Amino acid sequence: MTTTADADRELKAKHRALWASGNYPAVAAELIDDFGPEIVRACGIQAGDRVLDIAAGSGNAAIPAAEAGAIVTASDLTPELFDAGRRIAAARGVDLEWVEADAEALPFADDSYDVVMSTVGVMFAPHHQAAADELIRVCRPGGRIGLINWTPQGFIGNLFKTMKPYAPPPLPGASPAPLWGDEDHVRELFGDRVANLELRRQEIVIDHSPSPLEFREYWKRNYGPTISAYKFNADKPERVADLDRDFLAFVTAWNKAAEPGKTAYHAEYLLVTGTKSAG
Hints:
The protein is 41% helix and 21% strand. By secondary structure, the chain is α/β, with parallel strands linked by helices. Strands 3-2-1-4-5-7-6 form a seven-stranded mixed beta sheet, with helices on both faces. The chain is globular.
């Protein structure tokens, strides 16, 4: 008999394996490197702040926070990503704590941190309310909360829509990650526990690859969810061909670059900031 706890362990094991596949540190460094400094500015992180980065990956936000002089804990369900983060931190001359942790059951005490943040990380925890409850719990009253989340309508949201017909079926209870980029969903998750809540839609331009075809191949090599979709269809060549076709059509349609030999993808995200309510 499979219990709820067994199902949850299976779900978390699959999430860990998904993000350990490919090369997420390359994706973070090459496509969204600006997110780290942006969340540090948005949260007003200063020297001496106690900062927790949830679903920190290889530290693309945690390391800039440490460079600002904060005392930083980088946590993630996938510790396989920490080795790259430690190398980057050492090269940049900063030290921070790396802790394996489930965003839905953080191993930290209540009210422990001045700033709790996540850049396109906590949004991928399958149970949104549990993750929201935890990030609020570990933030001190009056402390700052900052998130960067992909929106359902933006480039990454549509990337997931393109892959959805080919992806493994979601396990029961898992919510779609891009919902964290919906303003009403975030308000509902936080309720009155987060004050001064600001929700701003912004864009980042991704211009890494010289052609849509190469950009498709980049995702296939490096991004866990894309690797998972192709792996799920590996024994069905016709399905792989269909996914290749649909993926290429998607990245071709979304390419805004006017010059040959260049690509530019405008990826919308939701910047979320607020403070934990007292009491």
